[in-house]
Design brief:
The chain is α/β, with parallel strands linked by helices and 566 residues long. It has 14 helices and 25 strands. Bound molecules: 2-acetamido-2-deoxy-beta-D-glucopyranose (NAG) (6 copies).
Length: 566
């Protein structure tokens, strides 16, 4: 009887304090640059998204390892939309727990993803503060007029623990200006003759193929390349046309891209609407992946959605719902990993895992601040704590760094590289990372996470790409030049695989770190101290084999193609 009494007592205690709160995520302060303008008005409506726990994430992980690892009997047997859904959709208990919580609190949940793993609730700030032990404030950042409603801490009522993986936006503070090019390159000198490929300052064009890339048009349908566009970066078809006339006169200058939009994204074509980022990305995918159908995905920004992190997320959920997804996707945007917070970064990364399993190669630049985040300069230069850039740190993305010059080809100072604090090194990487860590001097002062996933996975040219923006020729640099170029290379290889009746490359990394690892020019010179930080500031040095500046090095097209067809 005594035992029974205690049992009842516990149950009633649990019911009375159904609001017992477990801290889900918190940060001591907003990242530098963000300034609080005070408490968010209590009656403002807030739309919060909730990631429901997948029913079998470990199953998807195992399946992906099996379909992406050379030698496996299931190698490159990519999954269908419904196959992926069977792993990532939440269990009935999880959905029931969430719905019960919402209904007990008088809010109506909306399912916002095709796999049913995201729900949203719209509620007043005061209620959100109460239900999630939060303190929503309004923040501003000097690089954007946007006001962000965020909290430094968010908790889950105990009955949702294990059912909800992410509440967003809450503790994510991503720089509103996340494109991957060093800040100062925006005003580079205009137009100049293409320099000789033998100088270390070679303007990159097809005149300078370090890795010879074929110009013959691709022939296979169902091999679409997707270029993502975020935070109001728009691609111009008139500029593409001018670019093709200048650098690819052999292909029709009216060749264009198709447009997809989500989150009320747009792609205006007015004389001042083009951005260097989107035009760089479109021009160096379409200018190299001859004949590959290319789509520009314009993802709307605030006020339609809260910010860049949610844009990355919405890209993955959008593609989850498509029957015939693109075969390669390139993203030239990123921000310091810690800005995202671990739960949101993990959820986005798991979204890439699902895309990789569908047979999509997910590529991104590795960051443009060397060892110090996305953009270096100013007070950051004296900071000897290294911080890596997401989404490249996701082990299901392929992170592309940048090189410069041809004889020798070296790591450029801004090439993002380092080690994740969120994601442990995946097994495909552990041996090359261990070798690289042995090359670091014993008195090395940099502080980084030796157990984390290392980036980049590879690198290629990323300096002085000739592009057209608003009718004007410009030179742009950054890992946002390198990632689209590698996406084009992958698309051309996929074309040949499809022509040979073989499946596309899909999730690349286990292949890149095994049978393809010799298809790269090893880059052994360079120091990634950043574009603005003094070359003497602490950073990694390139080394023989994989390193945290250039990964395996720059791709040799023919060797990579041979490895793909093998
Ligand atoms: C670059 O230098 C190499 C070796 O010095 C030479 O063979 C080649 O012709 C040069 N190429 C150009 C474009 O100047
Ligand atoms: C491009 O121009 C050619 C020749 O003028 C024309 O035949 C073709 O239909 C055009 N293609 C597109 C996509 O507009
Ligand atoms: C897009 O715009 C429509 C019409 O203005 C609006 O109803 C909808 O909520 C918007 N979508 C997003 C994601 O903001
Ligand atoms: C260095 O940067 C990290 C990441 O932004 C930050 O947490 C840390 O406080 C900085 N350290 C110094 C000494 O500025
Ligand atoms: C280092 O990375 C591991 C994951 O590999 C993580 O668990 C750990 O918290 C990280 N350490 C720090 C100090 O961020
Ligand atoms: C970084 O490299 C670029 C390209 O070589 C160069 O223009 C720039 O001056 C370098 N930055 C520093 C601080 O040395």
């Amino acid at each position: 009887m005594t035992a029974l009494c205690i049992f009842f007592a516990l149950v009633s205690f649990g019911a009375v304090s159904s609001a017992r709160m477990i801290v889900h995520e918190s940060r001591p302060a907003a990242p530098s640059g963000f300034v609080s303008q005070g408490a968010a008005p209590a009656n403002n409506l807030l739309t919060l998204r909730f990631a429901l726990a997948p029913n079998n994430l470990a199953g998807l992980q195992t399946k992906l390892a099996s379909v992406s690892t050379p030698g496996s009997p299931e190698f490159r047997k990519w999954l269908s939309k419904d196959d992926v859904k069977s792993f990532v959709q939440p269990s009935a208990q999880t959905v029931a727990a969430f719905n019960a919580f919402a209904s007990a609190n008088g809010v109506k949940p909306t399912v916002i993803s095709p796999n049913g793993d995201w729900m949203s609730l719209t509620l007043p700030v005061s209620q959100a503060n109460m239900l999630f032990a939060a303190n929503f404030e309004v923040f501003t950042h000097p690089s954007s007029p946007q006001k962000l409603t965020r909290t430094l801490s968010v908790s889950l009522p105990s009955q949702l623990v294990g059912h909800v993986d992410v509440i967003s936006p809450t503790t994510d503070f991503v720089n509103p200006n996340p494109h991957l090019t060093p800040w100062t390159n925006v005003n580079l000198a205009k137009r100049g003759p293409a320099a000789s490929c033998n100088t270390s300052d070679a303007s990159v064009s097809r005149e300078c193929p370090r890795a010879w890339i074929p110009t013959a048009p691709a022939t296979q349908p169902n091999n679409a390349l997707l270029v993502t566009g975020y935070v109001d970066n728009w691609a111009q078809s008139a500029d593409l046309s001018t670019f093709l006339s200048l650098l690819r006169p052999d292909i029709p200058s009216n060749t264009t891209f198709s447009l997809l939009t989500i989150d009320n994204g747009t792609n205006p074509q007015g004389p001042n609407d083009g951005s260097f980022e989107a035009n760089l990305d479109i021009q160096y995918t379409m200018g190299i992946a001859t004949g590959v159908a290319t789509t520009f995905l314009s993802v709307g920004g605030p006020p339609n959605i809260p910010g860049f992190a949610q844009s990355l997320l919405d890209t993955t959920t959008f593609l989850d719902g498509i029957d015939n997804p693109p075969t390669v996707m390139t993203t030239s945007y990123g921000s310091g990993e810690s800005d995202f917070g671990i739960s949101l970064a993990t959820k986005i990364c798991n979204g890439y895992m699902a895309l990789g399993a569908r047979g999509i190669s997910v590529l991104t630049g590795s960051g443009d601040g060397g060892v110090r985040g996305n953009h270096d300069g100013g007070s950051i230069c004296g900071n000897n704590t290294f911080f890596p850039v997401f989404p490249g740190t996701c082990p299901y993305a392929t992170a592309v760094g940048s090189t410069i010059g041809f004889r020798p080809e070296v790591a450029v100072n801004f090439t993002g590289g380092g080690f994740s604090n969120f994601f442990p090194a995946p097994s495909y990487q552990s041996v090359p990372i261990a070798s690289f860590l042995k090359t670091i001097p014993s008195d090395f002062q940099g502080i980084f996470n030796t157990s984390g996933r290392g980036i980049p996975d590879l690198a290629l040219q990323g300096w002085n790409f000739r592009i057209i923006v608003g009718g004007e020729e410009e030179l742009e640099s950054g890992t946002s030049a390198s990632s689209p170029t590698f996406a084009a290379i992958i698309a051309l290889i996929n074309d040949q695989l499809l022509a040979a009746g073989k499946p596309v490359l899909g999730f690349l990394n286990p292949w890149l770190y095994s049978t393809a690892s010799t298809a790269f020019n090893d880059i052994t010179i360079g120091h990634n101290s950043g574009f603005e930080c003094a070359a003497s500031s602490v950073a990694f040095d390139a080394a023989v084999g994989w390193d945290a500046l250039t990964g395996w090095g720059s791709p040799k097209f023919d060797d990579l193609l041979a490895a793909a067809l093998a």
